[in-house]
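Sample entry copied in:
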Amino acid sequence: MIEPIVTTSLGDSSYLLVSGDEAVIVDPQRDCWEVLADCHRRGLHVRYVLETHVHNDYLSGALEVREATGATVAGPAAAGYGFAHLPLVEDDELAVGDTLIRALATPGHTAEHTAYLVLDREHPEAPPGAVFTGGSLMVGASGRTDLLGPGRTEELTRAQFHSLRRLAALPDDTRVLPTHGAGSSCAAAPGSVERTSTVGLQRFANPALTVADEEEFLARRLVGLPPAPAYYRHMAPINRSGPQVLGHLPVIGPLTPGQVEHLAATGSTVVDARGRRAYAAGHLPGSLGIELEASFAALVGEVVPFATPLALVLPEPAVDAAAEAVRQLLRIGYRATGWLDGGIEAWTATGRPTASFATATTLDLAARGTGTVTLLDVRTRPEPAVPGAHAVPLGEVASRAHEFTGEVWTVCGRGRRATVAAGLLDRAGIPVTAVVSGGATDLIGPDRSPGTTAGPPPGPDHGRRPAEG
C-alpha cells in the first residue's frame, strides 16, 4: 500500500509505503510529525526513510524521521550526505515487509538522482508495481536540469533525456509516483494537476517523452525556463549536511508594536499575511504583503533574503495563522520571531504611521488601456504575454525597481504576486497600483496572440498547470 502525502504549498509529494507492519517514507518534508504519529497509531515500524535526490526546493525531513523512529536514512551514494546513511547505487535493494525496493540510476534533475522500483519480494523478476521517480519523470513534465548551474546544465539535460527513456521503457501499468508536481518550480515546464500516473499514460501524453531526438530534447528543455526561486541555492547544502532536527512544530508568540518596530529596525522583515486588499489599504511601512495561502512560504522565499528573521502581521485567529505560517516557513528554512499582537489596529492605536497603495481590477486596467501605464507582468512564466507589459519575474522586482517610471501597475495570474510586487515597489517609494482581482489571461483574451514584450519565447510544454497567483 502506497499513500501519497501532498504538500500543495510547494507542489511536492512524499510517500508512505506500507507492507505488513513495516513502512518506508520517501522524500519526507521537514514537518513530517503527523505522518510519524499516524505510523505510531497504526503500529508500523518505519524501517527506512528514502531520498531520491538532494532536494533544492525544501528541507528534508529524513533526520526528523530517523530521530523519531530509528529508521535508516537511505539515498543516492553520490549525494555527498554529511550524516550517517545507507548509500545506494544501481540495483541495490531494500526489503520492507513483502516488498523489495530497487535503486535505478536516473541522473538529470540532479547528478545523483535515483528512482526506485517497487517489486514483489517473493517474485522480484515480475514487473514492478510502481516507481518513485522523484524529480525525473513527472506527470506531464520532467524535472528541470539547470539547478546545479550553467556549467552542468547541458550534461544533466542529456542525462535526463536518457533517464526518461529508461523510465518510459517500464511496463505500461507501472504507477509513476513523482516527488515534484503541479506548482513546483523544480519542473522544466508546467505539468498536469494530477499527482500520479502510469508509465503507459505518460509515454503517450508527456511532452518530455514524445521528443525522440536528443538534440531536439536539449534545445527544447533549455528554452523558457523561469528563474529558480532565490532560496533554492541554500537548500541543497543544508540537506547535504542535515537540517537541524526540531522534533515538533515551533511555537511563536505575540509581539508589541514597539517590539515589531525594533525588529524591523534591526534587520527583520515584516511580512503581512492578511488579505491583499486589507494589506494595500494600510500596512506597516516597509512590510511585504504575502497572503497566508498555499504559496505563502514559496513567495517569501522568492523575495526575502534567506535567513532573514521575520515578524508577522496575521489574520485572525492569529494563533492558528501563526502555526500555519511557521509550518510553511520551516519547510524552507525561514524563522518567524512572532506576530504583531492586535494587528494593524494595535499599531495605529499607538500613533505609528501606516503606508498604502491603490488597488484595481483587470476591468479597471482594460478600461484605462494597458498602454497608458507602466505595466509589470510579474508571473514566473509570462506565456502568452500581456500586450504592452514588461515581463519581470517577481524575484527581480526589487533589484529592478529603479528601471520603472511613471504610473506603475502590477499584474500576475490572480493577484497574489501582483500584491507582493506592489509592496516591493511601495517600499522603494514608487507609486504603484496592484491589480488584485483578475489576471493576465483576462487582459490577453482568448483570441489574442502572444505579445512581444515578454522575456524568453514559450517552451513546448506550456499551458497545463493552473495559472499562478
